[in-house]
Amino acid sequence: MATQTERAVLVRAAGVLPWRVQDGRLQFALVHRPRYNDWSWPKGKLERGEEWALAATRETLEETGLEVRLGPPLPTSWYGLGTKDGRPQLKQVRYWAGTVCGGSGALEHEIDEVTWLDAAQARERLSYRRDREQLDAATEAHSEGLLDTWTLLIVRHAVAVGRGSWKGPDPQRPLTPVGARRADRLVALLHAYRPQHLLTSPSLRCTDTLAHYSAYSGLPLTERRGLSEEGYAEGPAKAVKHLRKVVERGEGTALCTHGPVLPDLLGHLAGQAPDGHGARMLTRLARNGLDKGEVLAVQIAGTGDGARVVDVERHRPSS
Questions:
Q1: What is the mean pLDDT of the chain?
Q2: Are residues 113 and 32 in contact, defined by beta-carbon separation less than 8 angstroms?
């Protein structure tokens, strides 16, 4: 059994492959670090208590001056960093493809150059072989029409006051302090995906879960009774009908609802996922449910009946 001294220290980091299509050619943004004289993807360590997706967009903004919207996740890198205080260090870097949606392009002190290169040029310029794995995955996704996605964020409302201790109408049950803290933390997480629409059950525990992000982003909350427990009980088909309209529109959307409504929504999405990890996850979650306050980031290519689920990621509340 490994001793405490032998056990590796895990260093967590996150990054983005900013991409664009310029004159019909797929290009990626690389950064140069003068301290190491190397070319790599924008990335950096997670701050204490920070979520992976937020760290990825924050570090990209700090290093490149570019604001990005997260798209499909890309392969994770693992590599050693030598030892610290007599213990080996192992670095884990999670990556996403990212669409540039703003920013000044101003550089910080650790980066002295950002350059856009096509895939072949980027492969030659990258200093580390491990960074080519993300490049190859993004390039392959683009060739299959699966890099340019929009994100459906399925949100289960945060923790609310229990039914047994609430005397008023059930739809008016508020969030607990724990639930309110989760709603506040969701602001940064949702912003990493830049939804354009906020769709919610009218129940207070759902509207309050998205209210902080609504205030931050300026996006209005659109309430749909069919996403509530009461509306679902009256007409179960209404929830999937609302989901179909979202998929037909094909624009980033955060949709907040309740545990009993989720199986139908996730089951419908599973039907638009090819056989593989995404379909299995959606089917399993349709059966087992999401945590309260959890966000399921579903990357979708295309719209309507031609929509295809590309990837599915869980963002669970920390315990």
A1: 94
A2: yes
> Which is it for strands 221-223 and 197-200: parallel, antiparallel or unpaired?
parallel
Give the contacts of 187 (CB within 8 A, at least 6 positions apart): 212, 213, 216
CA dist., res. 49 & res. 91, Å (int): 17
| Residue length of the chain | 319
Q: What's the average model confidence in pLDDT over 4-8?
A: 61
155's CB contacts (< 8 A; 6+ apart) are 186, 209, 210, 254, 255, 256, 257, 294, 295, 296
Q: Which residue has the higher pLDDT, 18 or 278?
A: 18
Please give, one letter per residue, the 3-state secondary structure of 29-75: EEEEECCCCEEECCEEECCCCCCHHHHHHHHHHHHHCCEEEEEEEEE
pTM surpassing 0.90?
Answer: yes
Domains of the chain: 9-143 (3.90.79.10), 150-315 (3.40.50.1240)
Whose structure tokens read 């204490």? 48
- What angle (nearest 5°) sits at the alpha carbon of residue 155, between those of residues 172 and 70? 145
Q: What percent of the residues of the chain are helix, what percent strand, and what percent coil, each to the nearest 5?
A: 35, 35, 30
pLDDT cut 90: percent of the chain above it: 88
Tens of pLDDT along 258-315?
Answer: 999 999 999 999 999 988 888 999 999 999 999 999 999 999 999 999 999 999 999 9
Cβ(192)–Cβ(57) under 8 Å?
A: yes
- Nearest Cα to Cα of residue 170 among 205, 136, 196, 141: 205
Q: What is the C-alpha separation between 116 and 7, in angstroms, rounded? A: 40
